[in-house]
Amino acid sequence: MEKDLWIRIPLSSNYAAAHAVKDVDVDVVAAYPITPQTTVVEKIAEFIANGELNAEMIHVESEHSALSACIGASAAGARVFTATSAQGLELMHEMLHIASGLRLPIVMSIAARALSAPLSIWGDYSDVMNTRDSSWITIIASTAQEVYDSIIQAYKVAENPDVLLPVMVAYDGFTMSHTYEPVYVAKDRSIILDYVPKKRPSWNVLDVEKPITMGVVANPDWYYEFKYQQVVAMEKSPEVLKEAFQEFEKRFGRRYGFIETYNLENSKIGILTYGGLYGTVIEAIDYMKKMGMNVAAIRLRVFRPFPYEELLKAIKNLEALIVIDRAISFGATLEGPVAMELATMAYKKGLDIALHSYIASIGQRAVTEEDVIAIVKNTVALLEKGVKVTEKSIYWGVRL
Amino acid sequence: MSASTKRLASWREIPIGGAITEPGNSVKRPTGDWRVFKPVINQERCVRCYLCWVFCPEPAIKILDKPYKTASGREWKITFEVDYDFCKGCGICVEECPVKAIDFIEEVK
Ligand code: SF4
Ligand code: SF4
To answer: If you average pLDDT over residues A84-106, what whole number do you get?
Structure first.
């Protein structure tokens, strides 16, 4: 990393998102305030007011309108951004499918938060996991630096003609959105714009010289083909994501992949999780090392497209995998949304691996290093009893 | 034409996101098959006032250069007719016609 191109400043993940938006030179921002997302857009408003970003800020009356405005602006060829959390993301839900169905490269940041009722403003991933089937590429960051970098990468992927799908970049509400970390941001946005150039849009744009109609009806003899186009775009996206990560690393020296691993070589048991909780898991693994116990950590960074090739490489030598999910899929075979993916993957690839699904950090219930160590001990005991796959997810920390 | 007689384009051949890139191509696709009632202009009563043509939201009223002579000997240079390929049977023309020259007849198929 060339030091003189960057400044290192303390930023929350929300502010890191705002800085990324400024540095990719977004044209239109439409958002509605919701805790814990609000400071993203406040910061962007400040950049616009200061003249640091020349963008149109559209004040809307709801998140449904925010994403609608982004859809319109993106259809007109603008580079657009929005941000939300929890109920806001739920209110956008209808428009999520319209954004991806119209193949508009919108980028959104999400300070992940629990869903009402009862009302909780605190962090978990219920909101993000609810968007699973909306055909958005989903990146989950675990540091403020990664939030900044991922939003920049998101535009490169979204706007690629082989993809043209919207991208969301999520991170823990409060524990990341409102805590400060040192972050490298570009001194001059030109280096970022060399990486994600603003060229004439490659997607269908509304242009008076070349009129088109968007948002039309597709009857039973057409609809299926348009959905299949989205399937193909999602299938092509891993290659485009990979190239975007590699070029990012080559230019800026910061390395990202679909997953991240820690202490994998020495371990028979692995813990897979996502978001800021990964940091706690790493700490716990270091403690366990000192106690003479080797456990691996795996972080899922890209949730959609689900990176099963990379995960397969990571878990194929493990005997047991603990998946700590941060959202509940009520009534599912395994109630952890990511655990379900892993179960499918293990079956698909014929893996002989124990899979223990845990649910934790719901409504930001604290998960400490001690919890992680206790989860591992619990799994060791279950393995001794011969439990290969947990009958249902284990609700860690709930008062029984 | 039904799917069984005409080969429809594959997912590779159609614009992404369902965009229609050919302006005005709706004339190629008849959409008048959901009518329950069908407006029929009584040429004897019609006074060629254009109101049905103005109000039809489709638009599915055709103005034809077709002379017409009524039984009482009145000669018209033009004729108003309904384009049944596009008429949705909304009944607006029936409601608006000032001389009640449009009958609304139930479709029997
Ligand atoms: S019924 Fe409606 S659509 Fe049909 S001709 Fe009259 S106004 Fe037009
Ligand atoms: S509104 Fe009635 S009278 Fe006027 S042109 Fe139409 S059918 Fe004829």
So the answer is: 98
Could you read off the pLDDT of A214-235 as tens digits, one per residue? 999 999 999 999 999 999 999 9
A127 and A98 Cβ atoms separated by less than 8 Å: no
Dump strand ranges (E) for chain A. 6-12, 28-31, 56-59, 80-84, 107-112, 137-140, 167-172, 180-186, 259-262, 269-273, 295-300, 302-304, 320-325, 354-359, 394-395
Chain segment A237-249, per-residue pLDDT in tens: 999 999 999 999 9
Which ligand is closest to the CA of B105, given by its number?
1
Q: Does position B2 have pLDDT exceeding 60, yes or no?
A: no
Q: Do B8 and A216 touch (CB under 8 A)?
A: no
A267 DSSP assignment? -
For residues A9 and A183, the answer to whether their CB atoms sit within 8 Å is yes
| Torsional sign, CA A109, A206, A100, A235 | negative
Residues of chain A in contact with residue B11, where contact means CB-CB under 8 angstroms, are: 225-226, 228-229, 232
Structure ipTM = 0.86
Tokens of A264: 């994998």
The answer to whether residues A376 and A288 touch, using CB atoms and an 8 Å cutoff, is yes
Q: Looking at the DSSP assignment, which residues form a beta bridge with residue A381?
A: none
3-state helix, strand, coil in chain B (%, to 5): 20, 20, 60
A277-290 and A369-384 helices, crossing angle to 10° = 70
User: Nearest C-alpha to atom 7 of ligand 1 is from which residue?
Assistant: B56
* Contact of B81 with B41, CB cutoff 8 Å: yes
Of A312, A294, A293, A310, give the one whose Cα is nearest residue A302: A310
Other CB atoms closer than 10 Å to residue A237's CB: what's the count? 23
Residue B35 alpha carbon to ligand 1 centre in Å: 10
Q: What is the mean pLDDT of residues A302-317?
A: 96
Q: Are B103 and B93 in contact (CB under 8 A)?
A: no
Q: How many CB atoms lie within 10 A of CB A60?
A: 16
Kindly give, in sequence order, each residue whose CB lies less than 8 Å from that of residue A257, ignoring residues fewer than 6 positions away.
A245, A301, A310
